[in-house]
Give the backbone structure.
Amino acid sequence: MITALAGGVGAARLLRGMIEVIPPESITAIVNVGDDTDLHGLHISPDLDTVLYTLADAINPETGWGLAGETWRVMESLGKLGGITWFNLGDQDLATHCYRTQRLHEGAGLAEVTAELANSFDVGIRMLPVTDDPLRTRLTLVDGTEVGFQEYFVKLHHDVAVRSIRFDQAEHARPGPGVLDAVAGAETIVLCPSNPVISIDPLLAVPGVRAALETRRDNIVGVSPIVAGAALKGPADRLLVEMGFPSSVVGVARWYAPWVGTLIIDEADAELASAVEAEGVRCIVAPTVMADVDRAADLARVVLGATA
Ligand code: FO1
């Protein structure tokens, strides 16, 4: 069994490549829920939905989130009413949030609902929320105000400097059903190219997860989300710098060194391979930019072969 640690877009792309290479049923994805938000009375789980839609080949390819061929009638009508429209929810996407919210209201756990959605979308991998308990990423900006993740990422276009980050209610969160077994039982643990600071760290904030991963360090293979000093998408480069780390594959290696044994970096960073290894992390150089499913499958082969 292969276990993947996943945030949003980059993780979904690598998982989409992995299912070309090994049977989807052999993959378990432990997915971040720190981006989750409650809006319009709905429980919205962006990283779970990005993985779900991408693996179902239903993702909006331009944005990397939401559904392809989406319509926006509800948002248009909501705008006319003076409702909240800065977080764009398409008409079909709303069905996912309505279904999830209703099932949670009926007492189902997030993992249970996620399995139902994966079944409805015919997604073969097992998708596990890192916790079924509340966990919300909150960011304190340099001006001292604290905002929720989606306010930071979408409303403020993550174009504001961050002083600190906390994962609200993490201390009370328990690993979701199957999470610790998926870490202990995996022959390889794939750390997907997600944002280390706001997509992967929430996973480790759930008590018990970091310790479980540290015992598997030799079997953990990460893919750097930073290529040639920049994030391919999102604020990973800025956040590393704001947290005092270089925005480079060396910064990523330093961030992950306590629990990641191998880091795959792009060919653009080949000359930094020895600097990565100087951080105590084994380094493999390979093409990591997943322009399409074939490239993602090629990268998946490198990742899955890295600890063989
Ligand atoms: N990202 C945006 O930049 N703008 C949006 O309006 C937006 C809406 C949205 C709706 C549902 C959903 O599942 C994701 C959505 N995202 C949007 C992406 C979201 O901010 C994710 O958390 C990021 O992709 C980071 O993982």
